[in-house]
UniProtKB/TrEMBL annotation:
Keyword Metal-binding recorded: no
GO terms of molecular function: DNA binding
Cross-referenced SMART domains: BHL
Source species of the chain: Acidovorax facilis
Protein name per Swiss-Prot or TrEMBL: HU family DNA-binding protein
InterPro entries: Hist_DNA-bd, Histone-like_DNA-bd_CS, IHF-like_DNA-bd_dom_sf
Alphabetized UniProt keyword annotations: DNA condensation, DNA-binding
UniProt family annotation: Belongs to the bacterial histone-like protein family.
Record-linked PANTHER family: DNA-BINDING PROTEIN HU, DNA-BINDING PROTEIN HU-BETA
SUPFAM superfamilies: IHF-like DNA-binding proteins
Length: 103
């Protein structure tokens, strides 16, 4: 599914025009990006959490020459899927986890 498909689905399920659905999607994405950029986590219960993570500086290898290179520290976006999302994607794993918790 690409962005156009997502906008069309949002519009159809919520009785919106595609323009309005696109505006809502733009606002959602912009809001999440702004919050994560500021260091805040955005948690959508059942779906997942968007947050930023810091990566330490490290030494890597140039794959073509094998020479060691320094990779600087950076901040990267991170997404952690929620339990409900995981259960929808892999119901068997969710069932095993529930059985294990019930013991």
């Amino acid at each position: 599914m690409n962005r156009a498909d997502l906008v069309a689905t949002l519009a159809a399920k919520n009785d919106l025009s595609k323009t309005a659905a696109n505006a809502v999607l733009d606002t959602l994405i912009e809001t999440i990006q702004t919050a994560v950029k500021k260091g805040a986590a955005v948690q959508l219960v059942g779906f997942g959490t968007f947050k930023s993570a810091k990566r330490a500086a490290r030494t890597g290898k140039n794959p073509s020459t094998g020479a060691a290179i320094k990779i600087p520290a950076s901040t990267v976006p991170k997404f952690v899927a929620g339990a409900k999302f995981k259960a929808v994607v892999d119901p068997k794993a969710a069932k095993r986890k529930a059985e294990k918790a019930g013991k």
